[in-house]
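Memo to structure team: turn this sequence into structure tokens by end of day. - J.P.
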Amino acid sequence: MSGGPPEGLFFFCPDDFCYINTMFIIPAIDLKDGQCVRLRQGRKEAVTVYSANPGATAKKWESYGAKVLHVVDLDGAFTGSQKNRDKILDIRKAVRMIIEVGGGIRDMSTVEWLVSAGIDRVILGTAAIENPEFMLDACRQFPGKILVGIDAKDGKVAVRGWEKVSTMESLELARRVETVGAAGMIYTDISRDGMLTGPNLPALEEMVKAVHVPVIASGGIATIEDVKNLLAIKGLWGAITGKAIYAESLDLKEAISLAAGNE
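Reply from structure team:
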């Protein structure tokens, strides 16, 4: 059986956008001190501020045709406690699209708060490594709502805002995630993130083939050619783009149209 979501497994899709050959292009909003920023290779000192109004930014991406939005509380990722809840609420109120949120989610009360606030998917990162029982409980309590972020450096999983690299192989974590009932996973190659050097296609293809839950690519997407290359990976569910759409090296409307098979 090939990787990617099998036919009929579309609990993660917007109701009106569930085509079997569609790859979702997912714009990213990274929050730091209440602002939309991007970090270079995840380094908190290498920050570029793009907007002081995350809600307005979310509305802009939705107006371009985005159906899913990726939001990360960077302050939460570094400290282990979410710091941008007010901005997350502003984003939720501003748009109708599916929202996935990660960063600093390391206890059940945070998961419960996000779900109660209307967040559609909750992303566990560090907790998936350091507290597997919590990951299992979250998947059981909120079926279809838990994603696991697998952030890799040289094939090893990084945690705590990418400041620490564990000994676990990314593929090992991916297979573990699948068995506990996660709705899907987000695979990020840290060396590519924010660098506009193109995604790690071999690693992504290996990940998609290794599991049978939705896999979302993250890191390195710079141009429409990168989107075309990702579309060649059969079964890849989605691709997150951040710096490229802010720096305008990638036209979000064009990428969404191409991925939806309209070009």
